[in-house]
Amino acid sequence: MPASASRKTGLEQLSDDLAAAVERAAQTVVAVNGRPRIAASGVLWRAGVVVTAHHTLRREEDLTVTLADNRTVPATVAGRDGATDLAVLKLDAPGSAEFADGAVKVGHLVLQVGRTGSAGHSASLGLVGAIVGPWRTWRGGEIESLIQLDLAIHDGFSGSPLIDTSGKVVGLNTSGLGRGVALALPVPVVNRVVDGLLAKGRIARGYLGVGLQAVEVPAALAAKFAPPARSGLIALTVDADGPAGRAGLQLGDVIVTVAGQPVADVRDLFALLGPERVGATVVLTGLRGGAPLELKVTVGERPTQ
Amino acid sequence: MIPITTELAGIAARVRAATVQVQGRRRGTWGSGVLWRPGVVVTNAHVVTGRSARVETADGTVHDARLLATDEGQDLALLAVSTELPPPALARDEPRVGALVVAVGNPLGLSGAVTAGIVHGRLTPRRGPPIILADLQLLPGNSGGPLADVLGRVVGVNTMMVRGLAAAIPCEVVERFVERAA
């Protein structure tokens, strides 16, 4: 149909709206030059603060950030958290992202806006595939909720914003948490981690210094615990100088409760080792060679990855 | 107001009308092409292997098309086809990043298949002309077919997949090639 100057077709309007949303968001999308070859994306999250994906940052010295106006400015690392794959940089740059008021829903159209160098911004379109959580990442981070995306995260798009069709930020994209699955961290999750990183430079997590695997507790021994324990965690490796090693935990010991809570799975233990536990003393109960075991352990802090 | 999906089907039909199927002389080389001017078809150089090609236009007619010009560097070829079918409108401006686009072609032997996505960005290689990247999937047989905007205007000629993205030669680059060759 010939384009009438006054009235646009629905599809033309949608196409213009998507392009306008991308242009609007692109003003606060930056390229983070922190690894060889292709740069990663980042977002001017707050005034003078850029958030990007931790796994894309291969160096902390000589970091620069390329802004929307193609100026390249130096940046320093304020903090990084491997568990949630987030890194926070400080720099001298104006502007900050606009955030959506409500949460996205499954089926919503969303866009990714990336910047991977000085050649301008680029974009991808897809859907919110699922919203999952709370979820514990494979590196032990606690994430309240997570957006699973029905789109591909292209090279350099980790650390880019996920935006709605009005151009407002709803999350931060990363391919580093889902082992290839396209995921985005919702804005409130990113805010929580950014607050922590700006305050302390890291997100502290409790650490015992043991490698554990879930095992079944034989029925005859299960009754020794109240409530009866069906499974526990067997120590497969013990760092002799780690918190549990110093407290006397040995290879082959089975941990059944920590701080009075049953631990049937490694995730149960992660949940009990939040930032507030660092430096606190907890009681571990379990079994050694079929006999009851009780140890007092002062929780350490997980070394940074 | 016409539903968006109905509109999309209408655009696809119009772009299809200007899309052709191209078979090189060697067996197994086939792709797509787009009617650029009356009686002139543009396709990729890698689709045409000899001095002529078999071209099937959207009305089902099969033509023996003569090769007018090729540019291996830009991967473009021009064919003369005796058809009365009108060429499509060409987009005057470069498409915006985020704008909706459709690709039409003959992937895997399917005639006139349509794929939709958005403009991802523009890539300017150190050597050679700039290319449009689109967030959609091209398959073997899509090569040489049109990438069009939501008004059915051709914005480029689809060429290949680059790192999971569709790469198309922009209209103005194709136009310069046609000017030189015609």
Task: Provide a descriptive summary of the structure in words.
- The complex is a heterodimer of chains A (305) and B (182).
- Chain A has 305 residues and is mostly beta strands.
- In chain A, 15% of the residues lie in helices and 41% in strands.
- Chain A is elongated.
- With 182 residues, chain B is mainly β.
- Chain B has 2 domains: 11-80, Trypsin-like serine proteases (Thrombin, subunit H, Beta Barrel), CATH 2.40.10; 100-181, Trypsin-like serine proteases (Thrombin, subunit H, Beta Barrel).
- Chain B has a 6-stranded antiparallel β-barrel.
- The longest helix of chain B has 14 residues, at 4-17.
- At the A-B interface, helix 1 and strand 8 of A face helix 1 and strand 8 of B.
What keywords describe this structure?
heterodimer, A: 305 residues, 6-stranded antiparallel β-barrel, 41% strand, elongated, B: Thrombin, subunit H, Thrombin, subunit H, 6-stranded antiparallel barrel, globular
Write a short abstract of this structure.
The complex is a heterodimer of chains A (305) and B (182). Chain A has 305 residues and is mostly beta strands.
The CATH fourth-level homologous superfamily of the largest domain in chain B: Trypsin-like serine proteases
**What's the CATH architecture of the largest domain in chain B?**
Beta Barrel
Query: What is the H/E string of chain B?
Result: HEEEEEEEEEEEEH
Give the N-to-C terminal Cα separation of chain A: 58 Å
Order of helices and strands of chain A: HEEEEEEEEEEEEEEHEEHEHEEHEEE
Detail the topology: elements first, then pairings:
The complex is a heterodimer of chains A (305) and B (182).
Chain A: H1 10-26, E1 29-33, E2 40-46, E3 49-53, E4 64-66, E5 72-81, E6 86-91, E7 109-115, E8 121-132, E9 135-136, E10 142-143, E11 146-150, E12 161-163, E13 169-178, E14 181-186, H2 187-200, E15 206-207, E16 210-216, H3 219-222, E17 231-238, H4 243-246, E18 254-258, E19 261-262, H5 266-271, E20 281-288, E21 291-298, E22 300-301
Antiparallel strand pairs in A: 1-2, 1-4, 2-3, 3-6, 4-5, 5-6, 7-8, 7-12, 8-11, 9-10, 11-14, 12-13, 13-14, 15-22, 16-17, 17-18, 18-19, 18-20, 20-21
Chain B: H1 4-17, E1 19-23, E2 30-37, E3 40-43, E4 52-56, E5 62-71, E6 76-80, E7 100-105, E8 113-123, E9 131-134, E10 146-148, E11 154-162, E12 165-170, H2 171-181
Antiparallel strand pairs in B: 1-2, 1-4, 2-3, 3-6, 4-5, 5-6, 7-8, 7-10, 8-9, 9-12, 10-11, 11-12
